[in-house]
């Protein structure tokens, strides 16, 4: 019994240096968070190294939700397994700048699932059953705004810290997707027309102005992943920069891997995927709870061994129904090599 | 002791009064002792005030092993002469059966005596014990007192309501014993 008392006293006074070494070597974010909840001194240590720890750990992939629930599954590339997060909303309508954009009773809610920072926004003027959203900047910065639209509508609702504003798409385009990248807004219409829209000038309110042409900027790529149903094949298209924007099939992703959501609604590109055990120039996607990889080197599709969710049956197929085979839109800085 | 009379001996006293006599080279594995010995400020018995006898025994075992490796492996004073695998296996064996309170005392001792290798072994052991556990399981395992006030707990719980929880499938698999 005396030994226990001794240990009790010692554990909470374990030298800071030792605790620091321990927390830095914890293998996952789950372990890191559990460590910080043990006692006050451990919490202090974990908060002090939080930034370093998070930077050293791989991105999480948000897995598709099959049944509406507040529990979301995040797949760790590093640990090759899922972590669960209970979030204060049922629907996720987008992710951008490290934040999940969710809705509760039509009101958008921004949540960083790692820092737990949350911003609740007022209800937008027009409410639709189905939204898609993206942020222009991280909501920690002073000039951020949220772009909200419903598929096949011509209305873009813009939230800035001052409040909601409404914009109509040029020529009453029906919006299919949009992405914001480095002060430019790229829009995709139902007829696969693409427009670039920018702010009239720096510091101005977001005003939609169709430029007609895409910038001849070699530093960025606009990708449009496209899933063809029935064949189970994914293609990636690149927006060709010319007077009338058009799509061209991408032959190489260079030193990046592409992770597609199950409906192709959104995706993420990961630079230097070898660092986390994934192959560059490859597309990763899910079907029937299984991982697939398609290499652009030889166009071969491989089923990966790891199951996303052990013991669950697939209902993901039903989610493919809406939208059939569609493009989604995103942009990223092109690597120097390409 | 008699066969190695030319070797200088060092005496260490644990917190509970037990005196250990070890070769100087063994003591010098601990950087703290090495500094003391080199500054010649330790001719009598060196008191190791925060380390109990059973722990000091374990520490000395570790140091002896380090000396054995470095003396058997040519001239360099480098314990890395073993292959990575051998070192890992040895480290695992050394930490085998170490319970949580011993582990804590070992960590404190290796930190105080500044023995990097032993500290690393302890940290790795601790990490492997924490891995995959919930906060309450960690507290139970290491007898750590939950010193959060109910209000603070509530606040952290609210924050963590959005934070990652463990995958229950993983949980099932890891706690099969």
Automatic annotation (TrEMBL), chain A:
Domain of life of the native organism: Eukaryota
Record-linked InterPro entries: F-box-like_dom_sf, F-box_dom, KIB1-4_b-propeller
Pfam families: Beta-prop_KIB1-4, F-box
Domain F-box: 11-47
Domain KIB1-4 beta-propeller: 74-289
Region (Disordered): 312-338
Transmembrane segments: none
PANTHER family recorded: OS06G0113600 PROTEIN
The protein's name: F-box domain-containing protein
TrEMBL record, chain B:
tRNA processing keyword on record: no
Domain SKP1 component dimerisation as annotated: residue spans: 117-163
Gene Ontology biological process terms from the UniProt entry: jasmonic acid mediated signaling pathway; protein ubiquitination; ubiquitin-dependent protein catabolic process
Known pathway: Protein modification; protein ubiquitination
InterPro entries: SKP1, SKP1-like, SKP1-like_dim_sf, SKP1/BTB/POZ_sf, Skp1_comp_dimer, Skp1_comp_POZ
SUPFAM superfamilies per record: POZ domain, Skp1 dimerisation domain-like
Pfam families per the UniProt record, alphabetical: Skp1, Skp1_POZ
Positions of the SKP1 component POZ domain: 8-65
Family the entry assigns: Belongs to the SKP1 family.
Quaternary structure, from the entry: Part of a SCF (SKP1-cullin-F-box) protein ligase complex.
PANTHER family hit by this protein: SKP1
Role noted for this protein: Involved in ubiquitination and subsequent proteasomal degradation of target proteins. Together with CUL1, RBX1 and a F-box protein, it forms a SCF E3 ubiquitin ligase complex. The functional specificity of this complex depends on the type of F-box protein. In the SCF complex, it serves as an adapter that links the F-box protein to CUL1.
Protein name: SKP1-like protein
Source species taxonomy: Eukaryota, Viridiplantae, Streptophyta, Embryophyta, Tracheophyta
